[in-house]
Specification:
Elements: H1 2-15, E1 46-47, E2 64-68, H2 77-82, E3 85-94, E4 98-99, H3 103-113, E5 117-122, H4 129-139, E6 149-152, H5 167-185, E7 190-193, H6 195-201, E8 211-214, H7 220-223, E9 231-239, E10 247-252, H8 256-263
Parallel strand pairs: 2-3, 3-5, 5-6, 6-7, 7-8, 8-9
Antiparallel strand pairs: 1-9, 2-10, 3-4, 9-10
Length: about 270
């Protein structure tokens, strides 16, 4: 077990030289998950509507975290951390004029409990990338533990913006947004996306970009064949001690050793 993890870490280090782009990381849970190891504390989560996973259960990954917004209300972050929450992405903004009213509360609570955090922006195609990036920067201070996130998905239920640009325009706007945030915060954001948006826009063609993929009914290897991913959102109906009601749960693609190095920007 230890030799396998060591080889994985060495491979990660070799592939991470320079900041030109993410390493071609294709780790599988069987390569590092040893549920009998006393060194690993696996999360104590449940699911209100669990999926029957086909041989690659997300619970085999040791590093899990949440994404939250105003809809989660107050969170007991110390309890969440004690039960296996290793990170959180917190909704900060959407479009060019909406700020999540719980962002500062969630951010401060996570910081106080020692839960690494990053913020995410929900993108609307009725505002320019520059305007939305400036809005995010206005609302999110420097000092996050993790890179921030650009959340790109279709918005069919919006009352004000349902347009669906073609893939070329989508990628150009994403590139502009990511570049602006990278210059300001010093680390390139991750892109979060969904199955239909990914297929319609070929967002994976963005250079120098790491991806956080939603896939609640299949492993990313099945749903996004051949795609390199950093985070996987595997349920939207998670039950986590310290959080009232259902919450999104995500896993990082790698063991704690790789997580520690990646988190620090190494």
């Amino acid at each position: 077990m230890r030799s396998v993890v060591t080889l994985a870490v060495l491979a990660f280090v070799a592939l991470s030289c320079g900041r030109g782009g993410p390493p071609p990381q294709r780790l599988e849970p069987q390569a590092f998950a040893d549920t009998t190891s006393p060194a690993l504390i696996f999360p104590k989560f449940a699911d209100a509507d669990p999926h029957e996973w086909d041989g690659r259960h997300p619970g085999l990954y040791p590093v899990h975290g949440l994404d939250v917004s105003r809809w989660q209300g107050a969170i007991d972050w110390r309890t969440a951390r004690a039960n296996g929450v290793s990170f959180v992405f917190i909704k900060a903004t959407e479009g060019g004029d909406v700020a999540d009213p719980m962002f500062d509360t969630h951010r401060q609570g996570a910081q106080d409990a020692g839960v690494p955090w990053g913020a995410y922006h929900y993108y609307y195609f009725c505002r320019s990338a520059r305007e939305q990036a400036r809005w995010f920067i206005k609302n999110v201070p420097k000092g996050a533990d993790l890179p921030h996130v650009l959340d790109m998905e279709w918005t069919p239920h919006s009352r004000t913006c349902r347009i669906r640009p073609d893939g070329r325009k989508v990628r150009a706007e994403a590139q502009r947004f990511l570049d602006i945030l990278e210059r300001h915060y010093g680390r390139r954001p991750i892109v979060y996306t969904t199955v239909d948006f990914f297929a319609d826009t070929q967002i994976d063609r963005l250079p120098k970009t790491e991806f956080w993929l939603r896939s609640v009914a299949g492993h990313p290897r099945q749903v996004y064949p051949g795609t390199i991913w950093r985070f996987w959102q595997y349920t939207g109906t998670g039950l986590v001690p310290g959080v009232d009601g259902r919450v999104d749960i995500n896993t990082f693609n790698g063991p704690p050793e790789i997580w520690a190095r990646w988190k620090s920007g190494g």
